[in-house]
Each structure stands twice: as structure tokens, then as C-alpha cells.
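Thread amino acids onto this structure.
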């Protein structure tokens, strides 16, 4: 379920989505406020939790740059 925009000082600065796929997989996406989910301006983090409770985070395309579409999160390569 997407999380609404964060606001600071009354102005929206960043759009954030968080999707829980199952008990072991979630995605976190951040983008400038006002963009579409299909715009290639998102930073997407894949969050994997193993059975022991260890959490591993990787980034779409192996980078922290805002170059990806939220709508592509499940098919992107992460490292």
C-alpha cells in the first residue's frame, strides 16, 4: 500500500511508496513530489528478510540514483 507524501513546513517535498509483497520481500520507493509512478525518477530499494530475521537491502540498478519507474520495481535488477 503506498504511503502518502511526506510534508515539511507545509510543502510537499518527496513522494514515498512502501509495498510489502510477502513476509520476506518489500520495496521502498522515493521520488520528487508530484511525479507519476511510471516516471523514471524513482530511487527503489528492495528489502529482503530471511528466516533468521536478517535484513538485506539492495538498490535498483545497483545505484542510489533516482533513475527508475516505481511501476517497474518487480522486474528491475537489484544489487
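Threaded sequence (79 positions):
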Amino acid at each position: 500500500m503506498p504511503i502518502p507524501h511526506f510534508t515539511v513546513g507545509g510543502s510537499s517535498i518527496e513522494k514515498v511508496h512502501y509495498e510489502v509483497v510477502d513476509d520476506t520481500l518489500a520495496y521502498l520507493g522515493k521520488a520528487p513530489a508530484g511525479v507519476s509512478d511510471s516516471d523514471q525518477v524513482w530511487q527503489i530499494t528492495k528489502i529482503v528478510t530471511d528466516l533468521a530475521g536478517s535484513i538485506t537491502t539492495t538498490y535498483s540498478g545497483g545505484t542510489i540514483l533516482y533513475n527508475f519507474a516505481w511501476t517497474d520495481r518487480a522486474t528491475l535488477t537489484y544489487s
